[in-house]
Amino acid sequence: MRSSWRVEGTDGCSIFGLGWDRVPCQALGPPALCPPPSAHVTMAVGPRKPRMNKNTPTVTVKSAYHALDAAGFPKSFVSRLLPDWWDNALFKTSSGAIEFASILKQRLGVDVRFAENGELEVLATDGRARYKKRATTQNRELQACSTLGVALGKLALFCMPVVKPNLPKDPAQAVGQVRALSKSNAITFASLLDFCWSQGVPVLFLKDLPRGSKRIAGMALQTERRPVIVLGFQSSQNARQLFILAHELAHICLGHVEKNEALIDECIDAITDSIEGETSGPSDDEERQADVFALALLRNGADNLPLGKGRFFSPAELAAEAVRMGQRLQVDPGHIILTYARDYNDWLMANQALGYFPDQSNAVALIKQRFISNCNVNNLSDDNRNYLLSMQGF
Ligand SMILES: [Zn+2]
User: In 3D, which of 282, 328, 281 has the Cα closest to residue 305?
Assistant: First the structure.
Protein backbone atom coordinates (compact mmCIF):
# COMPACT_ATOMS: atom_id res chain seq x y z
CA MET A 1 0.00 0.00 0.00
CA ARG A 2 1.30 3.41 -0.85
CA SER A 3 1.12 5.93 1.93
CA SER A 4 0.62 8.85 -0.38
CA TRP A 5 0.47 9.85 -3.97
CA ARG A 6 1.98 12.82 -5.58
CA VAL A 7 1.31 14.74 -8.74
CA GLU A 8 4.16 16.64 -10.28
CA GLY A 9 6.01 17.28 -13.48
CA THR A 10 6.63 20.38 -15.51
CA ASP A 11 4.28 19.45 -18.31
CA GLY A 12 1.46 19.55 -15.83
CA CYS A 13 0.08 16.11 -16.54
CA SER A 14 2.70 13.53 -15.67
CA ILE A 15 1.46 11.36 -12.87
CA PHE A 16 3.83 9.39 -10.69
CA GLY A 17 3.57 7.12 -7.72
CA LEU A 18 0.31 5.36 -8.42
CA GLY A 19 1.51 2.03 -9.63
CA TRP A 20 0.41 3.04 -13.08
CA ASP A 21 1.33 5.81 -15.44
CA ARG A 22 -0.84 7.79 -17.71
CA VAL A 23 0.23 9.09 -21.08
CA PRO A 24 1.34 12.62 -20.30
CA CYS A 25 -1.11 15.05 -21.79
CA GLN A 26 1.72 16.59 -23.79
CA ALA A 27 1.89 13.34 -25.73
CA LEU A 28 -1.76 13.80 -26.58
CA GLY A 29 -1.25 17.37 -27.68
CA PRO A 30 -0.69 20.64 -25.79
CA PRO A 31 -0.17 20.39 -22.03
CA ALA A 32 -3.35 22.31 -21.49
CA LEU A 33 -5.51 19.90 -23.42
CA CYS A 34 -6.38 17.68 -20.49
CA PRO A 35 -9.89 16.36 -20.98
CA PRO A 36 -12.17 15.35 -18.12
CA PRO A 37 -10.99 12.29 -16.17
CA SER A 38 -13.32 9.93 -17.95
CA ALA A 39 -11.66 10.76 -21.26
CA HIS A 40 -8.08 10.20 -20.14
CA VAL A 41 -5.98 7.54 -21.79
CA THR A 42 -4.00 5.26 -19.54
CA MET A 43 -1.02 3.25 -20.59
CA ALA A 44 0.97 0.62 -18.79
CA VAL A 45 4.68 1.33 -18.43
CA GLY A 46 7.06 -1.62 -18.30
CA PRO A 47 5.62 -4.76 -16.74
CA ARG A 48 2.99 -2.93 -14.73
CA LYS A 49 -0.62 -2.92 -15.74
CA PRO A 50 -2.90 0.07 -15.40
CA ARG A 51 -4.63 -0.18 -12.10
CA MET A 52 -5.85 2.03 -9.32
CA ASN A 53 -4.77 1.62 -5.75
CA LYS A 54 -7.72 0.08 -3.92
CA ASN A 55 -6.60 1.75 -0.74
CA THR A 56 -6.52 5.21 -2.23
CA PRO A 57 -8.09 7.55 0.33
CA THR A 58 -11.04 9.74 -0.42
CA VAL A 59 -10.20 13.40 -0.59
CA THR A 60 -12.67 15.67 1.13
CA VAL A 61 -13.64 18.84 -0.65
CA LYS A 62 -13.34 20.83 2.55
CA SER A 63 -9.79 19.72 3.34
CA ALA A 64 -8.61 20.27 -0.23
CA TYR A 65 -9.86 23.85 -0.36
CA HIS A 66 -8.67 24.53 3.17
CA ALA A 67 -5.11 23.53 2.23
CA LEU A 68 -5.20 25.69 -0.87
CA ASP A 69 -6.56 28.64 1.09
CA ALA A 70 -3.70 28.32 3.55
CA ALA A 71 -1.28 28.42 0.60
CA GLY A 72 -2.77 31.72 -0.59
CA PHE A 73 -5.42 30.46 -3.02
CA PRO A 74 -8.90 30.95 -1.55
CA LYS A 75 -11.74 28.73 -2.70
CA SER A 76 -13.45 31.58 -4.54
CA PHE A 77 -10.35 32.04 -6.69
CA VAL A 78 -9.67 28.33 -7.28
CA SER A 79 -13.31 27.80 -8.23
CA ARG A 80 -13.08 30.54 -10.86
CA LEU A 81 -10.15 28.94 -12.59
CA LEU A 82 -11.50 25.40 -12.66
CA PRO A 83 -12.86 24.34 -16.06
CA ASP A 84 -16.61 24.37 -16.65
CA TRP A 85 -16.84 20.57 -16.53
CA TRP A 86 -15.32 20.35 -13.07
CA ASP A 87 -17.62 19.02 -10.36
CA ASN A 88 -16.52 18.72 -6.73
CA ALA A 89 -18.17 15.28 -6.70
CA LEU A 90 -15.12 14.16 -8.72
CA PHE A 91 -13.09 14.28 -5.50
CA LYS A 92 -14.81 11.01 -4.57
CA THR A 93 -12.82 9.20 -7.24
CA SER A 94 -9.07 8.75 -7.36
CA SER A 95 -8.91 9.83 -10.97
CA GLY A 96 -10.93 12.94 -10.17
CA ALA A 97 -8.58 13.91 -7.35
CA ILE A 98 -5.59 13.36 -9.62
CA GLU A 99 -7.21 15.47 -12.29
CA PHE A 100 -7.76 18.22 -9.74
CA ALA A 101 -4.05 18.11 -8.93
CA SER A 102 -3.16 18.32 -12.62
CA ILE A 103 -5.34 21.39 -13.02
CA LEU A 104 -3.69 23.03 -10.02
CA LYS A 105 -0.29 22.35 -11.51
CA GLN A 106 -1.22 23.79 -14.86
CA ARG A 107 -3.17 26.79 -13.71
CA LEU A 108 -1.73 27.74 -10.35
CA GLY A 109 1.73 26.33 -10.87
CA VAL A 110 1.61 24.42 -7.57
CA ASP A 111 2.46 20.79 -6.83
CA VAL A 112 0.29 18.89 -4.38
CA ARG A 113 0.27 15.46 -2.78
CA PHE A 114 -2.43 13.49 -1.05
CA ALA A 115 -1.58 12.05 2.33
CA GLU A 116 -2.78 8.67 3.59
CA ASN A 117 -5.71 10.27 5.35
CA GLY A 118 -6.82 11.99 2.17
CA GLU A 119 -5.54 15.44 3.12
CA LEU A 120 -4.27 17.54 0.25
CA GLU A 121 -0.85 19.03 0.91
CA VAL A 122 0.58 21.89 -1.10
CA LEU A 123 4.27 21.28 -1.77
CA ALA A 124 7.06 23.77 -2.23
CA THR A 125 7.49 24.62 -5.90
CA ASP A 126 10.31 23.07 -7.89
CA GLY A 127 11.46 26.39 -9.25
CA ARG A 128 13.19 29.05 -7.25
CA ALA A 129 11.58 32.41 -6.57
CA ARG A 130 13.47 35.49 -5.46
CA TYR A 131 11.54 38.47 -4.23
CA LYS A 132 12.55 42.11 -4.53
CA LYS A 133 10.08 43.47 -2.04
CA ARG A 134 9.30 45.95 0.66
CA ALA A 135 10.72 45.13 4.08
CA THR A 136 7.20 44.82 5.47
CA THR A 137 6.05 42.30 2.86
CA GLN A 138 6.28 38.58 3.54
CA ASN A 139 7.35 36.21 0.75
CA ARG A 140 4.11 34.26 1.12
CA GLU A 141 2.12 37.38 0.24
CA LEU A 142 3.74 37.38 -3.20
CA GLN A 143 3.82 33.63 -3.72
CA ALA A 144 0.49 33.47 -5.54
CA CYS A 145 1.70 36.06 -8.07
CA SER A 146 4.89 34.12 -8.53
CA THR A 147 3.32 30.71 -9.15
CA LEU A 148 0.56 32.15 -11.34
CA GLY A 149 3.11 34.03 -13.44
CA VAL A 150 5.11 30.85 -13.98
CA ALA A 151 1.98 28.84 -14.87
CA LEU A 152 0.81 31.47 -17.38
CA GLY A 153 4.31 31.72 -18.82
CA LYS A 154 4.42 27.99 -19.50
CA LEU A 155 1.09 28.07 -21.30
CA ALA A 156 2.16 31.05 -23.40
CA LEU A 157 5.49 29.46 -24.33
CA PHE A 158 3.62 26.38 -25.49
CA CYS A 159 1.85 28.59 -28.03
CA MET A 160 5.03 30.09 -29.45
CA PRO A 161 7.82 28.83 -31.67
CA VAL A 162 11.12 28.24 -29.89
CA VAL A 163 13.44 31.18 -30.60
CA LYS A 164 17.02 31.41 -29.44
CA PRO A 165 17.16 34.89 -27.91
CA ASN A 166 19.95 37.29 -28.78
CA LEU A 167 19.78 39.58 -25.78
CA PRO A 168 22.76 41.89 -25.25
CA LYS A 169 24.26 42.88 -21.92
CA ASP A 170 25.02 46.29 -23.39
CA PRO A 171 21.99 48.62 -23.41
CA ALA A 172 23.41 50.59 -26.37
CA GLN A 173 23.37 47.41 -28.41
CA ALA A 174 19.80 46.75 -27.28
CA VAL A 175 18.83 50.25 -28.46
CA GLY A 176 20.17 49.39 -31.93
CA GLN A 177 18.28 46.08 -32.01
CA VAL A 178 14.98 47.65 -30.93
CA ARG A 179 15.34 50.44 -33.49
CA ALA A 180 16.10 47.97 -36.25
CA LEU A 181 12.65 46.49 -35.70
CA SER A 182 10.78 49.72 -35.26
CA LYS A 183 9.76 52.79 -37.26
CA SER A 184 10.55 54.93 -34.25
CA ASN A 185 14.01 55.95 -33.10
CA ALA A 186 12.78 56.50 -29.56
CA ILE A 187 12.29 53.35 -27.49
CA THR A 188 8.54 53.29 -26.93
CA PHE A 189 6.40 50.79 -25.07
CA ALA A 190 5.15 49.38 -28.39
CA SER A 191 8.64 49.03 -29.88
CA LEU A 192 10.03 47.38 -26.75
CA LEU A 193 7.10 44.95 -26.67
CA ASP A 194 7.81 44.04 -30.29
CA PHE A 195 11.46 43.50 -29.50
CA CYS A 196 10.68 41.16 -26.59
CA TRP A 197 8.28 39.04 -28.64
CA SER A 198 10.74 38.93 -31.56
CA GLN A 199 13.30 37.48 -29.16
CA GLY A 200 10.88 34.76 -28.06
CA VAL A 201 10.17 36.52 -24.76
CA PRO A 202 6.41 36.67 -24.16
CA VAL A 203 5.16 39.71 -22.26
CA LEU A 204 2.08 38.81 -20.23
CA PHE A 205 -0.25 40.86 -18.03
CA LEU A 206 -1.31 39.51 -14.65
CA LYS A 207 -4.75 40.95 -13.94
CA ASP A 208 -6.61 38.38 -11.87
CA LEU A 209 -5.28 37.54 -8.43
CA PRO A 210 -6.53 35.71 -5.33
CA ARG A 211 -8.06 37.92 -2.68
CA GLY A 212 -5.47 39.12 -0.21
CA SER A 213 -2.55 38.47 -2.53
CA LYS A 214 -0.21 41.41 -2.97
CA ARG A 215 0.30 42.75 -6.44
CA ILE A 216 3.61 42.90 -8.17
CA ALA A 217 5.01 45.50 -10.53
CA GLY A 218 6.58 42.86 -12.71
CA MET A 219 8.52 39.65 -12.85
CA ALA A 220 11.14 38.07 -15.05
CA LEU A 221 11.44 34.30 -15.16
CA GLN A 222 13.02 31.45 -17.04
CA THR A 223 11.30 28.16 -17.62
CA GLU A 224 13.15 25.45 -19.51
CA ARG A 225 15.72 28.13 -20.37
CA ARG A 226 13.07 30.26 -22.07
CA PRO A 227 12.57 33.75 -20.63
CA VAL A 228 9.17 35.26 -19.84
CA ILE A 229 8.16 38.71 -18.60
CA VAL A 230 4.97 39.26 -16.59
CA LEU A 231 3.72 42.80 -15.95
CA GLY A 232 1.54 43.14 -12.87
CA PHE A 233 1.28 46.91 -12.46
CA GLN A 234 -2.34 47.92 -13.02
CA SER A 235 -1.94 50.96 -15.21
CA SER A 236 -2.57 51.82 -18.83
CA GLN A 237 0.02 54.57 -18.72
CA ASN A 238 2.58 53.62 -21.35
CA ALA A 239 5.48 55.47 -19.77
CA ARG A 240 5.14 53.56 -16.48
CA GLN A 241 4.76 50.18 -18.15
CA LEU A 242 7.69 51.07 -20.43
CA PHE A 243 10.01 51.51 -17.48
CA ILE A 244 8.85 48.30 -15.81
CA LEU A 245 9.25 46.36 -19.06
CA ALA A 246 12.74 47.79 -19.59
CA HIS A 247 13.66 46.89 -16.00
CA GLU A 248 12.42 43.29 -16.30
CA LEU A 249 14.12 42.90 -19.67
CA ALA A 250 17.30 44.20 -18.08
CA HIS A 251 17.17 41.44 -15.44
CA ILE A 252 17.05 38.88 -18.26
CA CYS A 253 19.72 40.55 -20.44
CA LEU A 254 22.08 40.89 -17.47
CA GLY A 255 21.73 37.23 -16.54
CA HIS A 256 20.06 37.85 -13.19
CA VAL A 257 17.47 35.13 -13.80
CA GLU A 258 18.67 31.56 -13.81
CA LYS A 259 17.06 28.46 -15.27
CA ASN A 260 13.71 27.70 -13.62
CA GLU A 261 13.93 30.81 -11.52
CA ALA A 262 11.52 33.70 -11.11
CA LEU A 263 12.61 37.14 -9.99
CA ILE A 264 9.67 39.10 -8.61
CA ASP A 265 9.67 42.88 -8.27
CA GLU A 266 6.96 43.76 -5.84
CA CYS A 267 6.11 47.37 -6.07
CA ILE A 268 6.38 50.52 -8.02
CA ASP A 269 8.30 52.18 -5.18
CA ALA A 270 11.01 49.61 -5.28
CA ILE A 271 11.13 49.07 -8.99
CA THR A 272 10.90 52.68 -10.08
CA ASP A 273 13.01 54.32 -7.42
CA SER A 274 15.13 55.70 -10.19
CA ILE A 275 12.08 57.40 -11.62
CA GLU A 276 9.92 58.09 -8.63
CA GLY A 277 12.62 59.54 -6.45
CA GLU A 278 13.21 57.51 -3.32
CA THR A 279 16.24 59.42 -2.21
CA SER A 280 18.14 56.37 -1.06
CA GLY A 281 17.64 54.45 -4.33
CA PRO A 282 17.49 50.68 -4.61
CA SER A 283 19.77 48.92 -2.18
CA ASP A 284 20.13 45.70 -4.13
CA ASP A 285 22.97 45.43 -6.68
CA GLU A 286 20.80 43.63 -9.20
CA GLU A 287 18.10 46.27 -8.88
CA ARG A 288 20.62 49.05 -9.38
CA GLN A 289 22.07 47.32 -12.43
CA ALA A 290 18.61 46.72 -13.91
CA ASP A 291 17.70 50.39 -13.39
CA VAL A 292 20.93 51.60 -15.00
CA PHE A 293 20.37 49.31 -17.99
CA ALA A 294 16.72 50.35 -18.30
CA LEU A 295 17.47 54.06 -18.14
CA ALA A 296 20.30 53.79 -20.68
CA LEU A 297 17.97 51.86 -22.97
CA LEU A 298 15.15 54.39 -22.67
CA ARG A 299 17.42 57.46 -22.80
CA ASN A 300 19.37 56.49 -25.85
CA GLY A 301 22.49 55.91 -23.80
CA ALA A 302 22.39 59.24 -21.93
CA ASP A 303 22.99 59.15 -18.18
CA ASN A 304 20.71 62.09 -17.51
CA LEU A 305 18.12 64.11 -19.35
CA PRO A 306 18.93 67.85 -19.52
CA LEU A 307 15.88 69.05 -17.62
CA GLY A 308 17.72 72.06 -16.29
CA LYS A 309 15.14 74.72 -17.04
CA GLY A 310 13.51 74.49 -13.67
CA ARG A 311 9.84 73.98 -12.98
CA PHE A 312 7.24 74.21 -15.69
CA PHE A 313 4.20 76.33 -14.99
CA SER A 314 1.62 74.35 -16.90
CA PRO A 315 1.10 70.78 -18.10
CA ALA A 316 0.89 72.10 -21.67
CA GLU A 317 4.33 73.69 -21.34
CA LEU A 318 5.80 70.46 -19.96
CA ALA A 319 4.15 68.38 -22.70
CA ALA A 320 5.48 70.72 -25.42
CA GLU A 321 9.00 70.60 -24.01
CA ALA A 322 8.80 66.78 -23.77
CA VAL A 323 7.95 66.63 -27.48
CA ARG A 324 10.81 68.97 -28.42
CA MET A 325 13.34 67.21 -26.22
CA GLY A 326 12.08 63.80 -27.30
CA GLN A 327 12.67 64.60 -30.95
CA ARG A 328 16.10 66.06 -30.26
CA LEU A 329 17.31 63.22 -28.00
CA GLN A 330 15.20 60.45 -29.57
CA VAL A 331 13.60 59.61 -26.25
CA ASP A 332 9.95 58.77 -25.57
CA PRO A 333 8.19 61.99 -24.37
CA GLY A 334 6.34 60.02 -21.71
CA HIS A 335 9.62 58.95 -20.16
CA ILE A 336 10.81 62.58 -20.19
CA ILE A 337 7.65 63.64 -18.35
CA LEU A 338 8.06 60.92 -15.71
CA THR A 339 11.68 61.95 -15.26
CA TYR A 340 10.51 65.51 -14.64
CA ALA A 341 7.95 64.22 -12.13
CA ARG A 342 10.70 62.46 -10.25
CA ASP A 343 13.19 65.30 -10.33
CA TYR A 344 10.65 67.85 -9.12
CA ASN A 345 8.32 65.55 -7.23
CA ASP A 346 5.46 66.94 -9.29
CA TRP A 347 3.33 63.94 -10.23
CA LEU A 348 0.15 65.93 -10.62
CA MET A 349 1.68 68.09 -13.33
CA ALA A 350 3.21 65.02 -14.99
CA ASN A 351 -0.08 63.12 -15.10
CA GLN A 352 -1.83 66.13 -16.59
CA ALA A 353 0.94 66.55 -19.17
CA LEU A 354 0.64 62.89 -20.17
CA GLY A 355 -3.02 63.59 -20.87
CA TYR A 356 -1.94 65.62 -23.91
CA PHE A 357 -0.68 62.42 -25.54
CA PRO A 358 -3.53 60.17 -26.66
CA ASP A 359 -1.04 57.41 -27.42
CA GLN A 360 0.37 57.40 -23.89
CA SER A 361 -2.52 55.61 -22.20
CA ASN A 362 -3.11 52.42 -24.17
CA ALA A 363 -0.52 50.18 -22.54
CA VAL A 364 -2.86 47.31 -21.66
CA ALA A 365 -4.40 47.39 -25.15
CA LEU A 366 -0.89 47.14 -26.62
CA ILE A 367 0.02 44.20 -24.37
CA LYS A 368 -3.14 42.41 -25.47
CA GLN A 369 -2.61 43.21 -29.16
CA ARG A 370 0.96 41.89 -29.14
CA PHE A 371 -0.07 38.82 -27.15
CA ILE A 372 -2.82 37.94 -29.63
CA SER A 373 -0.50 38.54 -32.60
CA ASN A 374 2.37 36.45 -31.31
CA CYS A 375 0.83 33.73 -29.17
CA ASN A 376 -1.13 31.07 -31.04
CA VAL A 377 -3.69 30.36 -28.34
CA ASN A 378 -5.53 28.00 -30.69
CA ASN A 379 -2.91 25.46 -29.62
CA LEU A 380 -4.76 25.26 -26.30
CA SER A 381 -8.05 23.69 -25.34
CA ASP A 382 -11.01 26.03 -25.00
CA ASP A 383 -10.73 25.83 -21.21
CA ASN A 384 -7.10 26.76 -21.08
CA ARG A 385 -7.31 29.35 -23.81
CA ASN A 386 -10.05 31.09 -21.83
CA TYR A 387 -7.97 30.75 -18.69
CA LEU A 388 -4.85 32.28 -20.24
CA LEU A 389 -6.89 35.17 -21.62
CA SER A 390 -9.07 35.82 -18.59
CA MET A 391 -6.18 35.82 -16.12
CA GLN A 392 -4.76 38.68 -18.16
CA GLY A 393 -8.11 40.47 -18.28
CA PHE A 394 -8.36 39.94 -22.05
ZN1 LIG B 1 14.03 44.27 -10.36
Answer: 328
